Amino acid sequence: MLTTLLKHAFQKKHLRTLSTLTLTLSTLLIVFNCGKRKPPLPPVERVKQRVEISGAQRGNSVVITWEMPAQTSADKSLLSIKRADIYRIVELGNAPLTLSEDEFASSSTLIGAQPISNADFGNKRFTYVDELQFSGQFVRLRYAIRFVNAAGQKAAFSNFLIIEPNSKIAESPTNLKIELTEPFINLTWAVPQANVDKSSPANIIGYNVYRLSDSERPPKLLNSAPVTNAEFADSSFEFNKDYSYFVRAVSLGNNAQPVESLDSNTVRILPRDTFAPSAPAALTIAAAPNIISIFFALNPEKDILGYNAYRSSDPTLPKSDWLRITPTPLRTNTFEDTNIQSGKTYYYYLTAVDIAGNVSQPSNVVSETAP
Cα(81)–Cα(93) distance, rounded to whole angstroms? Predict the structure, then answer.
């Protein structure tokens, strides 16, 4: 019995010793592991969205534009973007064109920031204008932007926009004026007399005319080639539609590329059709039993609604008192009067009516005796 008890005690002692040893080894492993360095993990990119920029010199400025991407439920990183930072490097004109993103990051200067809200996503166009100070040296400007979130974390840079500015670019046209006629909106402006560096004569090869309306955003270029005179007639407008116009001078830039000036003053117009059509012309008349027919030429205006015919048996009666015999305006260039009496002489004239309700002067009077 005692031998059995001693045996159990011995076994129990060794079990406790083994347990203690196991615990000690586990503790040592934890301590050793805590002091061991693991390979670093790459940082989590919190602002994933890059953007593509474009731009050009315009007058004494570089205009940079980009469009905001649309939000998607799969890309939550857009929701945290709070601004776009604009960077620039001024390089010598013969500097290498290739530049890494790291080199750009270390050498560029932050020149501006554009606040961004959630409402700006969905192809909204942003514009940043960098006003230039010309040094007389041949330089190259390199731009890029990147998004920054609320925590200050930055996205990758956009593409590089590279500009070689030219100081011999004409100043903006001035004193833009408009005049409304029925077929045209006529524009005239004052010619620039100097370039942006104040040298003269102004480097001008023509002008570009732009129009802006609710359906034309961004502004629409109206001319297919630069206009050579300081005037332009816009025939593509519509009455009762709000328009704004501005003009840019076009200069010959580096590598014979055209460079626009900054905008002229902007003029706005809401054209109203108050122009009466011309009177119907070339009236002829013919009589047959129980009918008198009138024939005439169609008006040249494009907005003609129709023609009204008036009749009188007394040619001395004021024309405002003649009887209108067309219940609605005629849509053709013929009219037949069947409400006549044989042996009686009738006198007729016509007026043209346009879709705005403007009425022409009376045509010449024609007459015929019913057989």
Answer: 35
3-state secondary structure of 267: strand
Strands 61-67 and 125-131: antiparallel
DSSP state for residue 351 in the 8-state scheme:
E
- Give the whole-angstrom CA distance, residue 221 versus residue 206: 14
How far apart CA 245 and CA 116 sit, in angstroms, is 29
> In angstroms, rounded to a whole number, what is the distance separating the alpha carbons of residues 163 and 160?
10
Give the count of beta carbons closer than 10 Å to the beta carbon of residue 50: 15
Smallest CA-to-CA distance from 259 within 59, 55, 53 is with 59
Quick check: 146 and 66 in contact, CB under 8 A? Answer: no
Nearest to 54 by CA among 69, 67, 65, 44: 65
Pairing mode, if any, of strands 345-354 and 366-369?
Answer: antiparallel
Q: CA-CA distance, 60 to 197, in Å (whole number)?
A: 8
pTM of the predicted model, to two decimals?
0.75
- Pairwise CA distance, residues 14 & 268, whole Å: 101
In this structure, are residues 296 and 307 in contact, taking their beta carbons and an 8 Å threshold? yes
In the block, which residue shows the tokens 């919190």? 46
Half-sphere exposure of 220 (CA within 13 A, CB side): 12
**Cis peptide bond upstream of 218, omega within 30:** yes
Q: Is 195 exposed, middle or buried (0-12, 13-18, 19+ CB in 10 A)?
A: buried
251, 326, 283: which is closest to 56 by C-alpha?
251
For the stretch 154-182, pLDDT in tens is 989 999 999 999 999 999 999 999 999 99
Closest C-alpha among 197, 41, 68, 85 to residue 126:
68
The DSSP code for 258 is E
- Per residue in 67-79, pLDDT (tens digit) is 887 665 445 555 5
Alpha carbons within 13 angstroms on the beta-carbon side of residue 191 total 14
